[in-house]
Amino acid sequence: MLDQNLVSEVLGAARAGGADFSELFVEDTLSTTLRLHQGQVKEAGGGNLFGAGLRLLYGDKVVYAYTNDVTADGLRQLADAVAQARGGTGMTDRSGAGGLDFRRLEVKPLYQARQHPLSHGKREKLALMQRAHGAAAGVGDVKTVDVNYLDRIQKVLIANSEGLWAEDERVWTRLMVSAIAQDGTLRERGYYGPGAGKGLEFFEEKTPEAIGAEAARIANAMLRAEYAPAGKLPVVIGNEFGGVIFHEACGHILETTAVEKNASVFADRMGQAIASSCVSAIDDGTIAGAWGMVNVDDEGMPGQRTVLIENGVLKSFMVDRVGELKTGYKRTGSGRRQNYTFAPASRMRSTYIDRGDKTPDDLIKSVSHGIYARTMGGGSVTPGTGDYNFAVNEAYLIENGEVTRPLKGASLVGNGARDLMNIVGVAGDLTLGQGMCGSVSGSLPTDVGQPHLLISEITVGGRA
Amino acid sequence: MRVTVTNRQLSLSEARAFLLQEAAARNVKLEVYSSRHASTQIQAFQAEVSEFKLSTRQGVALRALVQGAWGQSYSENLSEAALTRALDDAVENAELVNAEQGAALQQWPAPPALDLYGEGLSGVTVEQKVNVALELERAAREADARVKSIPYLQYQDADMLVGVANTEGLEREDRQLYAMQFSCPLVSEDGQNKMKEDWQFTREFTQLDPTQTSLRAVEKSLALLGARPTPTGTFPALIDGEALAELLALYSVMFSGKFVEEGKSPLGGRLGEQIVNPLVTLLDDPLRPTGLNSRAFDAEGCPSAPLTLIEAGQLTSFLHNADTAARAGTRSTGHATRHGLQSGVTVGPSNLVMQAGATSPAELQRDFTGVLLTGVSGGHAGANPITGDFSLESEGFWLENGEVAYPLDVFTVAGNILELLSDVEAVGSELHDTYYAVSAPSVRVSKLAVAGGQAKD
Fold first, then answer.
1. HSE-up of residue A24 (Cα within 13 Å, Cβ side)
2. From start to end of A129-274, where are the E strands?
3. Alpha-carbon span A342 to B153, nearest angstrom
4. Test mutation, B5, B197, B371, chain A, max A CBs within 10 A
5. What is the pTM assigned to this prediction?
6. Tell me: the pLDDT tens digits for A393-425?
7. What are the residues facing A152 on neighbouring strands?
């Protein structure tokens, strides 16, 4: 165990330069990565990520330093380095250091892994992968199948100069299948990669066969697709990973990381209608076993369910400690970081648009000429302008209320501030999808999600 | 919490020696890749340092070769116990992996001499670094009343040490240093927000010019104000070097010997063929002094050398590491790559360069009517390297008779990279560098599909 006296000494020494607040984050992470290509084991790796980060706050200004040397000497050196980073001015007397009375935060896991990845061998994990491979290989025109498996067990300690002491273990498991269908020179890829904040029991509810079959289904469906039309069209967006639209169009600009720098188009819109009244959106860290679950955030605050938008009205931002200092909005347990090499920042957890009262059929039937974007790829946004894009992996033409031909090469672009007003119908089939979200504090597991929804008009970037 | 105050952490060279000795004792063939990265990052906001980050990160990545199969692992914990576990893991992993023809450790010849360290940073004070960040902020803030804030700006430097050693007797190290800065101001007018960045990368701290970088960023951002709806249709296009480099970066994996071997590259089986317009020549140059990914040797220790991938439109080579080369019946081109310690050895470019052509910038634009494409984004999702297809969020201007008529509201461009490079009509004479480590000239192409609002008459 890290000794509390040592941690106390380090937190005190770090503040020797006059900082208002110090925080230590220690991490010991074990990961396993496996890759099958055409059923052959091509890669087996993984390892031990190991280090500590120390953050100081001078008002709302941040000094952050990290090291891999998690020994008493290493941590003392780290404390000296951060204390001196601002030129060593201010308080130099260390007599105030030490003697923190830590309040141990009882971290209640929202979910306990039943089949912990560390207690299962790699051969067992390979067998799961082979099942996924078997469900995709040779299906229709699928010629090439890649299966990737990942598990990650992150143990963290978060302690700060306010006396907080929190320890947590986070478990993530994920299986990703990429299937390439090929016919002569025609070639398309289908991808499906669900994951969870669970152990291997996740694959009992989402079987490897189902994951493999979904990737193969998409690849086959898209193989003989025509190029999508270009221009402004109504679009029905599928559920699950379809939620990436909200994530990019709106989620990132509701993080205080963007709000505090005046880099958000929604910075001064609290309490105002920013979306159509059929839209309610939530960022939730408390869904047991979710990919974006947060027992405690990386600042040691328990995860929360945060209503961002209620019936179109902006209700909350996602707020971390520095965000609270800079904007005045209360912390929401949204301080997250990829690992010890990043200072925490306000980030999404499981972010979704809530259920509406329509059915997917209702939505499709109401479109005379448009696109059904059934499964999505990733996307990105420029927070300051709200301009965003995301890719459609599987799309179809809608003609006179019917889904007709498959389409490829469609990406959607728009502007968050405008397009949220254009959501005119929301179905009831809410599902979450899993992805990695990259931003200022690194790449994080986050869920996106939504029911099927209809956008009255959005720019489709096709080439036909 | 099972984080413990660990036993003594070994130095990188001690860790390497310990691992090679352990491997030899177990009769295991082993490669040890080691890296240390010490860095400073400084951000400023409203005339104050808002974030100051100091870091040292080090660790080892292992590849054990057992009966023709590679097993990999890594560790940032350099205690003897953790290193022993990493070695155990690498060996266990090798036993799970299918053997590959051509898998071997090698004692490569000596790498070329390459100074990527310059004068170093030892004489540079913290205050000097802080001043760069403050100056970036001040210059942008004071440049124009329409600058609302500078949400993203940074000074950054790094001092890096990379080593490769193996049980065949190979042992080499390389030291590198860089300093860089970027500035990304948010400008606003009539309810329209725009943001565009500029940056500078150098091996010499003293060459940084924060004022220039910020002023250029402001100028680029202001130019985007007053955007009008983009027409939908297929138009002639002028693709500036930065945007073309971004596009090329998205498709560099097509040249990977591994991607080809696994049947994923649309270029597979096409060596020697004319694949794009003869105006296009593309090479990978790891020895480029100003390149972001320059290096004397690759992740396996193989010496670096420039390599031509497309010569006058003809596909001349793929990128290879030792394994993929052996299976393709050729020799390593020195393109074994690791994306940090945590990822395994794969194949990738260093500094991709599309060669500049003969057409001056003025000539390229003369009498031109169509789209000027200055940037694309969302490539991680909107570009498909298996087919070459793309559909990407874009930024640019409408040009009328060689003059900028107006900037364009958010739009997409769609097409196929190989078709695009076949449609090249003229290649500009100036090379643009990007922080993707890809450099390209501006080009004029006969057609590009654009989606915005209404079709243009």
1. 33
2. 142-160, 164-183, 186-192, 195-196, 226-227, 230-237
3. 17
4. B5
5. 0.90
6. 999 999 999 999 999 878 888 888 788 899 999
7. A31, A172
